[in-house]
From TrEMBL:
UniProt organism field: Alsobacter ponti
Pfam families per the UniProt record, alphabetical: DUF3604
Signal peptide: 1-20
InterPro entries associated with the record: DUF3604, Pol/histidinol_Pase-like
Alphabetically ordered keywords of this record: Signal
Protein name per Swiss-Prot or TrEMBL: DUF3604 domain-containing protein
């Protein structure tokens, strides 16, 4: 049997932890038991000729974006966004639209789902500013912003609006309270757009918003996603950060979420914004504002509501950092480490461990060892955080972070995107990233939400590669070449997002990994497993293992795998798939396992080098780029972890 046939069997026939029953998702172990029993029954006795008969598990990942802004967000509108939530859903569904700068735009392929997550604070404010509503024009600041925007200085107005909001300088006349008519009208329009775009089985339009805690310029944003339809979502208004109806404390958001579920019988989850603009606040070890160590209540509450983390997006990648992972040759990827969101406070090295996913996963192990609960037990996704209404994360189709950064010859010329006392982040430093991949049984709000809750997800920086990651104790090399590796994989273990209990005597964790290239994208370089653990002294450790790779390369004496090479032709913005491989598959056993040590494992899949969006711009506009501008990169995917817990 060909390797391609075997991998297709894995990717299309692998099962997940299971389906959640109506109501709150079942405990991971309960869900795993239910589906393991079903898989074992099918595995041990297959009465049908067809190996696919009797399947009730996901057969493909669904790709989407959980973090997109439209003109309903005050900053997006000020930067020039004119597309509405309805326009955003049309674009995500594969329709051609006209961008805010008048350019035709379309995705290479439709997405499967989208969350329009406009900022909850002052939702609907910007359309009133540009319309010059009387109450806006009566306020000197409101009039000044209106005149700046109408006069072609929208970017300057946007910076001023963001700083005014983050520094608490908005006048009462310019604050749209959630109980106001204007605010409720904007929320109703948001819900209506999602309801009209939602088509179960074909395209899922989630109802959602972004809670925007940015006190002091520290980004602690969360995207709130509803499992429910509009009949429940319209019974509430989004939670904001301004008192008396809101708070900038995540605990307030979690309380709002619990109240929503109690009131409606519905379900919501919160996804933290990538933490590289939080200046060390996203994953604290002491509770913000109190100076006290995190307690069990905080840990349990956060772990309950925040089961995913946005590890990559247009404002930088947040898997890890070279300072935190000096032995990881791929750690220096599209990093933003200059300061907070308004550049009012410079970044210092001591902040980094509280911002990046890999470090946070290790901190979670440390907290669990002391308080008994891991508050940072999250799965991984990517999303765009585009403020254009266009969820375009392809390098050759990048429509920018904001409308003023839509395609044009100037966005690679060193214009500042954010600037302040800490320095500047330039427009060319934004990245065309990313998407969320969700292994669900069908393309519906319910199935996708349940899969996100059980963390059966992975992040990509844009490509739609297919990735599987299973862990157990009994995988063998033959499981990667059997006719039905899906059944063997699920029967013997758990998928990404799952848990491994105490190891049987004399056994170490084994992992079944598989990846298939994006059908219209680049070949694959390697599949790595990243391990983090607490050693015998309680210190946090990490190691990256190459477990599957393309070609005939072999690791050097120091264990490093030679680079895959590069075919990127920067002047022509092209590459060839003459290196790398279309698929990777392997079974790997942890050679450094200690059954007494808490650990996590996740997969990282790297493509071969391809042109960055800056190279495509240079080719299209005939530009000569500055020497410091990156022109190629290795796109990647990150799976949700699998956690190992020793016997108590």
């Amino acid at each position: 049997m060909s390797t391609r046939t075997v991998l297709a069997s894995i990717l299309l026939g692998t099962t997940c932890l299971g389906l959640a029953a109506p109501g709150r998702a079942a405990d991971q172990s309960d869900v795993g038991t239910l589906h393991r029993e079903a898989a074992e029954k099918l595995y041990q006795s297959r009465p049908n000729y067809s190996p696919y008969a009797g399947r009730d598990f996901p057969v493909r990942p669904y790709f989407g974006d959980t973090h997109l802004h439209t003109s309903f967000s005050l900053d997006a509108g000020a930067f020039g966004a004119r597309l509405s939530p309805s326009d955003a859903y049309r674009f995500a569904r594969g329709e051609q639209v006209v961008s805010s700068t008048g350019q035709p735009a379309r995705l290479s392929r439709p997405l499967d789902f989208l969350v329009v997550a406009d900022h909850s604070d002052n939702m609907g404010f910007f359309p009133d500013v540009i319309a010059g509503k009387p109450h806006i024009m009566a306020d000197p600041t409101g009039r000044r912003w209106h005149d700046m925007i109408v006069g072609g200085k929208g970017a300057d107005a946007a910076y001023d609006i963001i700083k005014s909001f983050t520094q608490g300088r908005l006048s009462k006349a310019l604050i749209y309270s959630p109980d106001s008519t204007a605010y409720r009208s904007a929320w109703q329009a948001t819900i209506k757009a999602a309801e009209q775009a939602n088509e179960p089985g074909r395209f899922t339009a989630f109802i959602g918003y972004e809670w925007t805690s940015t006190t002091g310029g520290m980004n602690l944003h969360r995207n709130v996603v509803f499992r429910d339809n509009g009949d429940k979502a319209e019974r509430v208004v989004p939670y904001t950060t301004l008192p008396p109806l809101g708070s900038d404390d995540p605990r307030g958001l979690w309380t709002w979420m619990a109240a929503y579920e109690d009131k409606t019988g519905g379900r919501v989850l919160a996804i933290p914004h990538n933490g590289n603009l939080s200046n060390g606040r996203m994953f604290p070890m002491i509770e913000p504002g109190t100076g006290k160590a995190l307690d069990r209540d905080y840990a349990e509450t956060r772990a309950h509501w925040e089961r995913l983390y946005e590890v990559t997006q247009m404002k930088g990648d947040a898997e890890t950092h070279p300072y935190l992972s000096p032995n990881d040759e791929f750690a220096n990827f599209e990093r933003w480490d200059k300061g907070n969101i308004d550049m009012s406070e410079a970044k210092t090295p001591d902040m980094l461990q509280f911002e990046y996913a890999r470090s946070a996963l290790k901190l979670g192990l440390k907290l669990e060892s002391s308080i008994g609960v891991n508050p940072y037990k999250f799965g991984l996704i990517g999303s765009t955080d585009a403020h254009t209404g266009l969820t375009a994360a392809e390098e050759d189709n990048y429509f920018g972070k904001t409308a003023v950064m839509e395609p044009g010859p100037d966005r690679t010329k060193g214009r500042a995107f954010m600037e302040g006392k800490a320095g500047a982040v330039y427009e060319w430093e934004t990245i065309a990233s990313g998407y969320a991949a969700v292994w669900a049984t069908e393309n519906t709000r319910e199935a996708l939400f349940d899969a996100m809750e059980r963390r059966e997800t992975y992040a990509t920086t844009g490509p739609r590669m297919l990735v599987r990651f299973f862990g157990g104790y009994d995988f063998e090399p033959g499981d990667a070449v059997t006719r039905s590796p899906a059944l063997a994989g699920y029967t013997k273990g758990v998928p990404m997002g799952g848990d491994l209990g105490p190891a049987p005597q004399g056994k170490s964790p084994t992992f079944l990994v598989a990846a298939l290239k994006d059908p219209i994208g680049a070949n694959l370089d390697r599949y790595q497993i990243v391990k983090g653990w607490l050693d015998a002294s309680g210190e946090m450790r990490e190691k990256v293992y190459d477990v599957a790779w393309s070609g005939a390369r072999q690791p050097a004496a120091d264990g490093r795998l030679p680079p895959v090479g590069s075919t990127v032709d920067v002047p022509n913005a092209t590459w060839t798939n003459t290196i790398g491989g279309p698929e990777l598959i392997a079974v790997w056993k942890d050679p450094d396992f200690d059954p007494k040590q808490r650990a996590f494992y996740y997969g990282r899949v790297l493509e071969i080098p391809t042109p960055r969006w800056t190279a495509y711009d240079a080719k299209y506009y005939g530009l000569k780029l500055a020497p410091n501008l990156p022109t190629s990169q290795q796109e990647r995917a990150y799976t949700s972890p699998i956690w190992y817990s020793p016997a108590q």
